[in-house]
Amino acid sequence: MRQKGITAVPLDNLADKQGSHVRQNWNPQMWLDLELDRLSLSPLRPKRPLPWPDPDDIQLARDLGFVDPITARPIPGTRPVCYEIVSGEKSWLTAQKAGLPTVSVIVR
User: Fold this and answer.
1) Secondary structure of residue 96 in the 3-state scheme
2) Which residue, 45, 60, 71, 82, has fewest beta-carbon neighbours within 10 Å?
3) Which residues pair with residue 88 across a beta bridge?
């Protein structure tokens, strides 16, 4: 049975896997910790209901202090640079509901 909840892989574990696909494409400059207000939903996002987080996911994020990383791209011409979410809307919403100050973002 698949376990529900929020999971994360420490970056150290990814960096230590020499010879793996992750190691070959590893670029630590692509990871950022961003304030939630610097992220927004993409206007290209399909018009479907937002994936609202479960109360259990929100409590887990409060307890752990983090959520799964979000994938985003920079919005040109914004200062400070803001980002639009490519994937990870549920993690973004969970972090908001949990009151986390920042989230980990993979920038493409």
Assistant:
1) helix
2) 45
3) none
| pLDDT tens, position by position, 14-73 | 444 444 344 455 554 578 999 999 999 988 888 888 888 999 999 999 999 999 999 999
Distance of alpha carbon 85 from the chain centroid: 9
What angle in degrees, to the nearest 10, is found between the helix axes of 55-64 and 89-98?
A: 70
The letter for the amino acid at 84 is E
Q: Return the structure tokens found at 54.
A: 């479960």
Least confident of 8-12, 35-39, 86-90, 104-108: 8-12
Residue 77 identity = G
Sheet of strand 39-41: strand arrangement: 31-35, 102-107, 70-74, 83-87, 39-41
CA 25 to chain centre: 19
Question: pTM value?
Answer: 0.69
Distance CA 76, CA 38 (A): 13
Please provide the distance, in angstroms rounded to a whole number, between the alpha carbons at the two ends of the chain.
33
